[in-house]
Amino acid sequence: MSEQQTAGIIPLETKDLKRESGFRLPYRFEIDPAGRESPWWVTIVSIVLALAACGIFIALNGMNPITVYAKMLKGAFGSSFGVTETLVKAIPLVLCGLGVSIAYRISVWNIGAEGQFLAGAMAATAVTIYFPHLPMYMSLPFMVVSSIAAGGLWGLLTSIPRIYFQVNELITSLMLNYVALLALNYAVFGPWKDPKGFNFPGSPMFTAAQSLPTFGVSRLHLGIIFAIIGVLLYAFIIRYTRWGYELRLIGANAEAARNAGIRISRHVMVVMIISGGLAGLAGMGEVSGVAHRLMYGISPGYGYTAIIVAWLAKLNPLSLVVSSVLFGGLIVGGYSVQTIGLPSSISSMIQGAILFFLIAGGMAGKFRIRRNS
């Protein structure tokens, strides 16, 4: 055996024989050189595959997947109570998803929405602790401003290391989530703990003047207006303003944007402040509109789920609303299947599966089948 054959190199004579034989595959796979997004149907296929994969685990648990999914669907959308509860869960997902989306527009990978959410919740609660007698027309705006400022500060703490020290924002935003969580635990187990709460780790209950008004007898609160306004502003800014155009340009080609005189570092800082502020506002809505107190476990992971929401929506504002309602329904549906013997964590399993198949589908969607000429 020759040295070339030993090294795994096909000799020239063999190559010539293959060429002369005319043996070729009629099609080939290649990555789309234009770098276009995957087709729209890839998202639908990814969701279907995720449900099918989770259905296997449900079946292994001795349950009929169709029955389980029907139960979840009915629990989330089968009654007025289910619909309003789904919308209640969708409010923080929309706001956090907006924050994540605007950062992703310029390829800033903010995965710190959870910490920014908690920072906003703590700032809103601080208003009720240190200014307990303010009337509603003063306390609620003060809580809104405080939560946006706190969330924005948490986002700023991520942007500064990236801009001045080239620290990856994935690391800083993730670590700041744990800092915010530990700060919340300290507050509710320590100085802000309700002395009348029977040792429950939570702040005193908010008064009526510190609580967002609700619609009718449901738990659907005024925070839904915040979410709607946020979506409309996001859509308008991205599509019709110069700043939105600059964000889109940075996201498409940062080098071209830099050559055009756009200060990318300034945009990163502003975007992270806005991103954190939106997540902070979501935290205010949760403590003032739903829980009416700051407590341990105030977030079931809204900030992390918002990453999947934004990815599923492909940063589109209208799609963001749809995906937020979908995942809000998953959370509510997860609670409803507890009555048939399954844990509510099934919704987390489905969320994770959807993210997995979305990533896989996005990669697969970049491949194109070409006919060999």
Descriptive account of the structure:
It is a multi-pass membrane protein. It is found in: Cell membrane. This protein is mainly alpha-helical and 373 residues long. The protein has a domain of 213 residues. It has a two-stranded antiparallel sheet with strand order 1-2. Helix 4 crosses helix 5 and helix 6 runs antiparallel to helix 7.
Amino- and carboxy-terminal Cα gap: 35 Å
Q: Report low-confidence residues grouped into runs of 5 or more.
A: 1-21
| Mean pLDDT level | 89
Strand content: under 5%
List keywords for this structure.
globular; mainly alpha; two-stranded antiparallel ribbon; single chain; disordered N terminus; about 375 residues
What's the short version?
Helices cover 68% and strands 3% of the residues. It has helices at 3-6, 12-21, 41-60, 65-77, 80-104, 113-130, 136-165, 169-189, 223-240, 242-252, 254-259, 264-291, 302-313, 317-336, 346-364; strands at 27-31, 367-371.
Question: How is this fold's topology laid out?
Answer:
Elements: H1 3-6, H2 12-21, E1 27-31, H3 41-60, H4 65-77, H5 80-104, H6 113-130, H7 136-165, H8 169-189, H9 223-240, H10 242-252, H11 254-259, H12 264-291, H13 302-313, H14 317-336, H15 346-364, E2 367-371
Helix pairs in contact: 3-15, 4-5, 4-14, 5-9, 5-12, 5-13, 5-14, 6-7, 6-8, 6-12, 6-13, 7-8, 7-12, 9-10, 9-14, 13-14, 13-15, 14-15
